[in-house]
Design goal:
The protein is α/β, with parallel strands linked by helices. The chain has a single domain, classed as Cobalamin-binding domain (Rossmann fold, 3-Layer(aba) Sandwich). The protein is built from four helices and four strands. It starts with 5 loop residues before the first strand and ends in a 7-residue tail after the last helix.
C-alpha cells in the first residue's frame, strides 16, 4: 500500500463528534498528511471532496454509524474510488481511544496496512 498524503474527515448526519475529528486531524497532520475537514455533510459530498482532493483516506466518527460508512463507500465506488480507505475513527472515551487511533492512523500514513 502506498503512503497517504491527503485525507478527508467528515461526519454524516449530526453525530457531534468534533473532538474525535479534531484529534484525528491533528494526528494525521503530525504524520505529514494534508487534511480537509468537513462538517456534517451527505455521503456523496464526502466522496466528491475525496475525488477533488485525491484523498487516500476518509475518516468518519463512529457516531456517524455503520450505515454512513457503507453509504460513503458506495458513493466512492460510484466515482471509481474503490482504493480510498474509509476509517471509523472511534469515540473519544479515554486515553486508550487516542493511542489506538494513533496506531491505526500511523499504519495507514506509512502505507503499512489497513485499519484494524
Amino acid at each position: 500500500m502506498e503512503s497517504v498524503r491527503r485525507a478527508v474527515l467528515g461526519e454524516v448526519g449530526a453525530s457531534g463528534a468534533d473532538e474525535v475529528v479534531r484529534a484525528a486531524a491533528r494526528l494525521l497532520r503530525d504524520g505529514g498528511v494534508e487534511v480537509v475537514q468537513l462538517g456534517a455533510v451527505e455521503p456523496a459530498a464526502i466522496a466528491e471532496v475525496a475525488l477533488q482532493e485525491d484523498a487516500g483516506i476518509i475518516g468518519l466518527p463512529v457516531g456517524s454509524g455503520a450505515t454512513a460508512v457503507a453509504e460513503v463507500t458506495a458513493a466512492l465506488a460510484d466515482r471509481g474510488l474503490s482504493d480510498v480507505v474509509v476509517v471509523a475513527l472511534g469515540e473519544a472515551m479515554d486515553d486508550d481511544w487516542l493511542s489506538g487511533l494513533s496506531r491505526r492512523l500511523a499504519s495507514l500514513i506509512d502505507g503499512r496496512g489497513t485499519p484494524g
